[in-house]
Amino acid sequence: MVLGRARNGGARRAQSSGIDHSKLPLTLALLLATVLVSLTACRVLDYRSVQSDFEQAVRADNAGSPFSRQHEDIVSRLTPEYIAKLDAKLRPNAWMLRAVSAWRAGLTNEIDKSASAGRADPNLVRGSRDDVVLAMIAALATDSDLQRRWLAARRTLTEAEYAATFEPGFKAAWRELADEAEASMNEKTPVDARAYYYYHRWRILLNWAAVIASIRPVAAAGAAQDRANASVNAPSLLEAAKGERDKIPGDHSLRALIRAQGGE
Predict the structure, then answer these.
(1) Residue 68, Cβ neighbours under 10 Å: how many?
(2) Is pLDDT at 40 greater than 60 in this prediction?
(3) Which of 43, 123, 132, 178 has its CA 20 to 30 A from that of 237?
(4) Main-chain phi, psi angles of 173, to 5 degrees
(5) How far is the C-alpha of 246 from the C-alpha of 201, rounded, in Å?
(6) Helix ranges (DSSP H) in 153-252
(7) Could you give the CA distance from residue 82 to residue 74 in angstroms, rounded to a whole number?
(8) Cα–Cα nearest to 193, from 253, 121, 133
(9) What is the pLDDT of residue 62?
């Protein structure tokens, strides 16, 4: 009887305190869920801001005013740790943004790491824009590096300089586009991703042609041109470039960009 009264009194005191211990685990779970939802919402909003900054930087690139500092900022914000905390479906896109920004900012060490991580992500949709761009990025980085080297050489090369660096570089970039990027496309690939692919094939072919035209003596340039034509299986690099350009719909924004660059 004494033990019984003690138990009943303890129950009354618990009730009078206003705390229902049977509901405590659920309360904590709901509180934790609320915090997690809040953190997730903040992270998504922050990521949307990164995407917006990336789009602004790309528009500036296309207008001829490279935003390399903004691309550097995107790379610094999209750390592997940050990407790992994003919703799983957003991670491939984040790796793609990081890889492209690393390429545009000239951060060579980050390009391959970002592209490889993105392509290895199990959430990457095969044939998607992210997949195609991640497959292209190595070739685009090679093309940009060759352009920097060519400008540093004041746009004039010897036969030996071309044979040692530029010829194998352009051949490798072309193969990467054909073997990796084209192979990544399927029925799910959107028109914009295909247009982006053809646009960069057009650019690389024109860059390659310009580099060959700068070789001295001129006789060496002719021989290099013949080898390049054979590599792309076309009568000339310029003809091949026109073929890639014409695969882009006439009303697409990248076709308009080509016209603005004097490519039509």
Answers:
(1) 15
(2) no
(3) 132
(4) -60, -40
(5) 11
(6) 159-161, 167-176, 182-184, 191-213, 218-232, 237-245
(7) 12
(8) 133
(9) 76
235 phi, psi to nearest 5 deg: -60, -30
Q: What does the DSSP 8-state code read for residue 22?
A: G
Torsion of CA 44, 46, 52, 57, to 10 degrees: -130
Can you give the pLDDT at residue 58? 84
Exposed / middle / buried, residue 186 (Cβ in 10 Å: 0-12, 13-18, 19+): exposed
Q: With contact defined as beta carbons under 8 Å apart, do 237 and 208 qualify?
A: yes
pLDDT at 199: 95
Task: Give the model confidence (pLDDT) of 12-28 as tens digits.
Answer: 444 444 444 444 454 44
d(CA 130, CA 119): 9
Q: Taking all residues of the chain, what is their mean pLDDT, rounded to a whole number?
A: 86
Cβ contacts of 85 within 8 Å, gap of 6 or more: 43
φ/ψ bin of 248: left (φ > 0), alpha (ψ from -120 to 50), beta (otherwise): beta
In whole angstroms, what is the distance from residue 167 CA to residue 230 CA? 12
